[in-house]
Structures are given as C-alpha cells and as structure tokens.
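Recap for those who missed Tuesday's class. We walked through two folding examples back to back. For each one, the amino acid string is listed first and its predicted structure tokens come directly after. Nothing is annotated here on purpose, so try labeling regions yourself before you check the end of the notes.
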Amino acid sequence: MTGFTHRLATASDIPALRRLMEASIGALQSAFLSPEQVAASRTIMGLDTQLIEDGGYFVVEDPGVSPPAIAGSGGWSRRATLYGGDHSPGRDAAWLDPAVDAARVRAMYTSPDYARRGVGRLILQLCETAAAAAGFRRVELMGTMSGEPLYRACGYQPIERIEDPRGGAPVPLVRMGKALG
C-alpha cells in the first residue's frame, strides 16, 4: 500500500471516476462474467454521487505520475442502499442506526493498471476506520465475483449469494459482512 495517497472525492472528480468505473467493470469482471453479464453490470453498478455528497467516498492516487493517476476509488455509507449507482433502480437513502445496522462499503473500483497492488485493501481500511469512528460495529458490502477473494482475505464473510437480473442478464453477487474492532 506504499506509494499511494488518498483523499475524499469531490464533485469535480465525477467524470474521472465514471471513466475509472467503466474501465474497471470492463476489464476486471470479464474473467468472471459473460459479455452479457459485464454489460448488465453497468446497469446495476456505478457511482452513487450521494457518497461524495455525504463525504464518504475516497480517491486513491498514484502521485508518482504527472498528473497523479486515479488508482482506485471506493467509499462507505451510513445510508440503507447496499449497492448501485445513481442510475440503478431501488436505491434507499434512509439513514442507518450505528447501534443496530451495519455501515455499507460501496462502489469500490480499481483501475486495471493498478489491480492487485494494495489499492482495494487501502480503500477497505479507510472505509472501516471511518465507519468505526462514526459508531458502527459492523460493515456489509455486495461483492462481485472478482472482488470476493479480496474481501475474504480482508476478513469479510459471505452472508448470501444473489443474482441481480435488473441489467438484462443475471449478475452473480455475494453479500458479505465483517465485525469492526
């Protein structure tokens, strides 16, 4: 995880984050999903700008290139939506109660150029630290098949497996959770 910097995302990052997500979905999901499922993933995944507005979305950068390259992004939320972008149906912006609910880790994407270099672990660490500071004792996420090995390695346990058909082809996902502290 050395060599990367991180900061909170701002509205001015949105175009670059959308490009990152498109590249990540296309390159990193293709080893696990059919072309139809990769296309469907674009409907059910994506950037939820509420995460940026709420101050819980991180950008990880490689300062060793000029201008610094976005190596990855991801965030956490105290809202009920478990996954999906601005365009995804079924979002729920209700506030969670840290005493009884799990915080959400959301919208994690790594640039294909930076895959398997510690970017995802850094984002998870940032999210978990922020959620714990806000009083949450657990976190949950909806993992893709390409993300599941990372989440397991970071202590997340499967809760349920689903297939999301909203994009036209069913996309396999796994809901995972972890206790904090």
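Example two. Treat it independently of the first, because the proteins are unrelated.
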Amino acid sequence: MSEIRIVRDYAYPIATVWRALTDPDLVPLWTATGAGGRPEGFAPVPGTRFRFVAEPKPGWNGIVNCEVLAAREPALLRYTWTDDGGGDVTEVAYRLESAGEGTRLTYEHTGFTGVGGLFMSQLLGHVRRKMLSAGLPAVLAELDADGHLRPDSTLRARS
C-alpha cells in the first residue's frame, strides 16, 4: 500500500492555519498551485459529504467525492477521497499542532493500492508538496489576525 506523508511548519498561529485549510473560500486559493480544486458542500463536520471540483484533464473529469470522517478544530480534519469515476476509497488527514510560535501541519493521504495506487500516490504527492510549500504559505501571508483576507490582498476569494 502506498501513502503520502508531508510535514510542514508555518510561522502562523494554529487557528489561522486551520482556517486556511477549512474555509471553502480560501481552499481554492492555495490549491491553485495544483489542480485548483474548490470544495462544494464542505463543512468541517463529521458525516458531511462534499466534493472537490477542479479543471477536468484528459482521463479525469475533475471531481473527487469526499466525506468528513473526523473534525476537531483546530487539530484534526479527516475525510475520504474517491475519484468520481470509482476506484479506491482513500483517506486524507490534516493534523495540526503548535510548534514554537507557529504550527506544524502533518498531511497524510493513505489507502492507495496496487500499481494504479502507486502511480496516483506519486502524482498526488508531487502536487500536494507544491500546494503545501508554495500555495498555502502564500495564502497564510495574506490573512489578517482573524484569518480573513486582508483588504489589500491580491488574492481573491470566490464570492
């Protein structure tokens, strides 16, 4: 079985990082460094079914179906992840903990099986590293103390 595990430290309070990871208006801003998925119907509440919608690509319609399994603000978000075309049901987890004056994020995506799963974990791992190393820090830098985009931000949340 293949998996993705990425650990990143951010110089922002845990509540700010949590907001960037769970606010449906902010998520597309940092996922834009990958496939640009936006959550539809998402709420960090166990049992919530939602989907990520991104630009379709050859062989992929751009939709991933998910269900929130666990949410404990500001420390844990876990959800299932299944391609709209079927395939393995995998699991994504964001674990947050205070690290000095900032936040340590541990991202895990598990449950990939077989050769197809190995390929998918490698592809998604590359994309997630970019999102968490470039996309998320860019969004965090544009948030005010309350976790909202600053009025002078060049980033724009969808209305």
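Answers for example two:
The CA atoms of residues 41 and 53 lie 11 Å apart.
The longest strand covers residues 102-112.
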